[in-house]
Write a structure and sequence with these properties.
Blueprint (H helix, E strand, L loop, with lengths): L1 E3 L2 E3 L26 H14 L12 H8 L3 H13 L3 E4 L3 E4 L9
Antiparallel strand pairs: 1-2, 3-4
Helix pairs in contact: 1-3, 2-3
Protein name: Bacterial regulatory s, gntR family protein
Pfam families: GntR (PF00392)
GO molecular function: DNA binding; DNA-binding transcription factor activity
Length: 108
């Protein structure tokens, strides 16, 4: 995210706005600063807010992101847990993690 004269601009990982396969999306390693899980969670939230992932879309597997970034699976798990806490995604055993409607109630 860059700010110039009070205007916030988001730098997207993808080079085009139409993602044909959301499973190919992954957080940008170069943008990870500070607490890794929170930085990844922020990038996932940004992708949802920008419409790269819409309600009902399946996110890439945690293992795929861990492998692509070279981080431990527990780090990615913590990032997904944080995004779920923010009310943007919901994980289902053996099905995957999906974007939910903004403001939809989440139950543990």
């Amino acid at each position: 995210m860059q700010s110039h004269r009070g205007i916030t601009q988001f730098r997207c990982v993808q080079t085009h706005t139409d993602i044909s396969n959301q499973a190919e999306w992954h957080p940008d390693f170069a943008r990870i600063r500070g607490h890794v899980a929170n930085a990844i969670a922020n990038q996932i939230e940004e992708a949802v807010r920008l419409g790269l992932f819409k309600p009902g879309d399946k996110l890439p597997t945690q293992q795929a992101i861990a492998i692509s970034l070279g981080f431990h699976l527990n780090t990615i798990f913590a990032a997904y847990r944080e995004v779920a806490r923010r009310g943007l995604i919901k994980g289902f055993a053996r099905r995957g993690t999906f974007v939910i409607e903004c403001g939809a109630p989440t139950r543990s």
